[in-house]
UniProtKB/TrEMBL annotation:
Residues annotated as domain Pyrroline-5-carboxylate reductase catalytic N-terminal: 5-99
SUPFAM superfamilies: 6-phosphogluconate dehydrogenase C-terminal domain-like (SSF48179), NAD(P)-binding Rossmann-fold domains (SSF51735)
Protein name per UniProt: Pyrroline-5-carboxylate reductase
Record Gene3D superfamilies: NAD(P)-binding Rossmann-like Domain (3.40.50.720), ProC C-terminal domain-like (1.10.3730.10)
Length: 269
């Protein structure tokens, strides 16, 4: 990709995306930069990527062709207002801010700007993100292809109607945190039953990875894969019955629902 990618906000997501793009050779170090007022975030960005991080958002916008708005939703308006005068029709602007709709981004930037709302997750760092994205009316099919290429370089990506982006946030944007909790709790269970901590954690993480890979690579419904693990009168069905009794499935459904609703609430920040 020949474009220079600039980030406003050099925090966790900017670092994860930038490292993902670099790992896939989508951009070189000299095609990346970030603007951030926080010295700690700037050094972390440069340590993580080798690329420049500066305390000058205007310079980032002037150099960038693809501009990624990677600040928290509550700082988005002030970050954009400070650089709005130098954002032109030549920029492709990507916002990763949870909950902030295209209509709000158009209010801040102008509806004649090419804007894409995206929702990746932190696993872009390891090339395993799960993303959704949607475009405003000014962005072109070529812009969609560029964003698709960027996001698919660091995982899977779906172009979706904007009405579904909050649900993407509730499921895969926030989802890594749910799975970390699952892995931690599985390891705790193993430790409770006598396994050494490092062995338990490794078994738990590999079990989650293996199960996810089975779903992706066999294309078999997870219910059928679950049935294949549970022998009649065996161990697994006891574990499954315990999870049902503690509301495991319902807890996950409610978690996605609550996070989606929170994303909707963030719309006007
Ligand atoms: N974390 C995640 O898993 C995901 C997050 N997102 C979205 O990504 C966005 C960034 O999140 P995350 O990376 O976690 O946040 P971080 O807090 O790690 O990074 C944001 C950075 O932006 C800086 N900042 C604040 N104001 C400005 C400004 N005016 N100009 C430039 N930089 C500024 C912050 O500095 P300071 O610390 O001093 O405020 C901070 O360093 C959020 O909108 C979030 O909704 C999307 C998907 C997943
Ligand atoms: O918790 C948050 O608000 C952000 C958005 C998705 C993941 N983290």
């Amino acid at each position: 990709m020949k474009h220079v990618v600039g980030f406003l906000g050099a925090g966790q997501m900017a670092q994860a995306l930038a490292r993902g793009f670099l790992a896939k050779d989508l951009v070189g170090v000299d095609q990346l930069l970030a603007g951030d007022p926080s010295p700690a975030s700037r050094s972390a960005f440069t340590d993580a990527t080798g690329a420049r991080a500066i305390d000058d958002n205007l310079e980032v916008v002037r150099e960038a062709e693809i501009l990624v708005l990677a600040v928290k939703p509550q700082y988005l308006a002030s970050a954009v207002e400070s650089v709005r005068s130098v954002i032109t029709e030549n920029h492709l602007v990507l916002s990763i801010a949870a909950g902030v709709p295209l209509a709000r981004l158009e209010e801040l930037l102008g509806n004649d700007r090419r804007i894409v709302r995206i929702m990746p997750n932190t696993a872009c760092l390891v090339g395993a993100s799960a993303s959704g994205y949607c475009l405003n009316a000014t962005a072109s099919d070529e812009d969609a292809a560029t964003v698709g290429q960027l996001l698919e370089s660091v995982g899977v990506a779906f172009r979706l109607p904007e009405s579904l982006l909050d649900a993407v946030t509730g499921l895969s944007g926030s989802g890594p945190a749910y799975v970390y909790l699952l892995i931690e709790a599985l390891a705790d269970g193993g430790v409770r039953m006598g396994l050494p901590r490092d062995v338990a954690l490794s078994l738990a993480a590999q079990t989650v990875r293996g199960a996810a890979t089975m779903v992706q690579e066999t294309g078999t419904h997870p219910g059928q894969l679950k049935d294949a693990v549970a022998s009649p009168g065996g161990t697994t069905i006891e574990g499954l019955a315990t999870l049902e009794a503690h509301g495991f499935r319902s807890a996950l459904i409610e978690a996605v629902t609550a996070a989606t609703e929170r994303s909707r609430e963030l719309a006007n920040r």
